[in-house]
Design goal:
Blueprint: E1 4-11, E2 21-26, E3 29-33, E4 42-45, E5 50-53, E6 55-60, H1 65-73, E7 76-81, H2 87-92, E8 99-102, H3 132-142, E9 146-150, H4 158-170, E10 174-178, H5 182-191, E11 195-197, H6 207-215, E12 219-221, H7 224-234, H8 239-253, H9 278-289, H10 294-300, H11 303-308, E13 325-328, E14 342-347, E15 350-354
Parallel strand pairs: 1-4, 1-5, 6-7, 7-8, 9-10, 10-11, 11-12
Antiparallel strand pairs: 1-2, 2-3, 5-13, 13-14, 14-15
Helix pairs in contact: 3-4, 4-5, 7-8, 9-10
């Protein structure tokens, strides 16, 4: 693979933008940031555009090759899948572009909406804490990247949620809890799940719960785009406002906020579903609307998911990291909508999306 040099690009360094500089791509990794182009390198004139690390969507659902295509077309180079089954299907997305990590089969309670999802394996249904260890051991054998438990009402009692989280941690896996109500969120916090995805639509999180999240170093993936879509589709009064205010309160208290969308391309009840790729740019706008700065919204889709999901080889524009990059037209620190104006995408050093610069 020839060396590529991006000239005249302003690099997002995690807090601000550099002056126009050069970034070198050597095979699949980033080389020098700054300096002159080596002899024989292929050059791309960035014309002053902004260069971001490849974006994460920290809550996706994968169904098809088209999902991959849509993600990378919108600058998403890493997707964190939150339910994919059977195991053969989960592995079918490995080694592709974008890079997909997955929870595989989630732990769920009987009788709820997740139990009615087509193809949901029987082994996903837990009725007591004694099943947690076997469930998690099976997921580890499947090769999952993290363990997910779905908290829908009281379908899984606190002891079972606690046991799944404890077993996941005992096996060295990050634990993720689905919680879209105040009660579910309280129980996810009580269990000590590492990551809590969604935000309550039935009220605003209290200060005590948020303080406990901070003390336990828990992370939130609020999926505001999905909370907005569900609230609109089902006419939930103040549903999105509650979710947004909970995000604002968590952010103000210091809970790390990651950008994830809950995008899903299969059949479903939503009139306007959250789309792969484009949904992430909507999510970033909603995070800024909830009070995040432009820089923190960008970190929510780059360095923070890389850190909290233990992927230290990406999430920044720095020598030696994976050459996952997104070139955008405009300054997203001043106007977050600039992230959607994609000029070019590189994944693992290979240009995926070409646009006139």
């Amino acid at each position: 693979m020839p060396t590529t040099v991006l000239n005249n690009v302003r690099v997002f360094d995690g807090s601000g933008l550099s002056t126009p500089t050069t970034v070198t791509i050597e095979d699949a990794v980033l080389g020098a940031v700054g300096g002159s182009a080596p002899d024989g390198a292929e050059t791309v004139d960035g014309a002053g555009a902004v260069l971001l690390p490849g974006l994460f969507d920290a809550h996706v659902h994968m169904n098809s090759q088209e999902d991959l295509t849509e993600l990378v077309a919108h600058g998403v180079t890493t997707g964190l899948d939150m339910a994919c089954f059977p195991v053969e299907r989960m592995h079918s997305f490995r080694g592709r572009v974008p890079d997909i990590r997955s929870a595989g089969t989630p732990a769920i309670g009987p009788g709820g909406p997740h139990s009615k999802m087509p193809g949901m394996p029987d082994e996903a249904l837990l009725t007591g804490p004694g099943q947690a260890e076997d469930f998690v051991a099976r997921r580890v054998a499947d090769g999952v990247d993290y363990v997910k438990v779905v908290i829908d009402g009281d379908l899984l009692d606190q002891a079972t949620v606690d046991a799944v989280v404890a077993a996941g941690k005992a096996h060295g896996k990050l634990t993720v809890a689905h919680a879209s109500s105040i009660d579910a969120f309280h129980r996810a916090v009580r269990a000590g799940a590492d990551v809590i995805t969604h935000a309550p639509r039935d009220g605003v999180l209290d200060d005590t719960t948020i303080a406990q999240m901070v003390s336990q170093r828990q992370v939130a993936v609020p999926t505001l785009a999905m909370m907005e879509a569900v609230s609109d589709a089902f006419g939930i009064p103040d549903g999105y406002r509650s979710a947004r205010e909970s995000v604002a309160a968590m952010y103000a208290a210091g809970v790390p906020i990651l950008a994830g969308t809950d995008c899903f391309s299969g059949p479903g009840p939503l009139r306007d579903p959250v789309r792969h790729g484009s949904g992430l740019h909507r999510e970033l706008r909603l995070l800024v609307d909830a009070g995040l700065t432009g820089a923190d919204a960008l970190r929510a889709a780059t360095s923070l998911p890389a850190h909290h999901f233990s992927l230290p080889d990406r999430g920044a524009v720095r020598p030696g990291l994976r050459a996952d990059l997104v070139l955008v037209d405009g300054d997203p620190l001043a106007d977050i909508t600039a992230t959607s104006r994609i000029l070019g995408v590189w994944a693992n050093g290979i240009r995926q999306v070409h646009a006139a610069v």
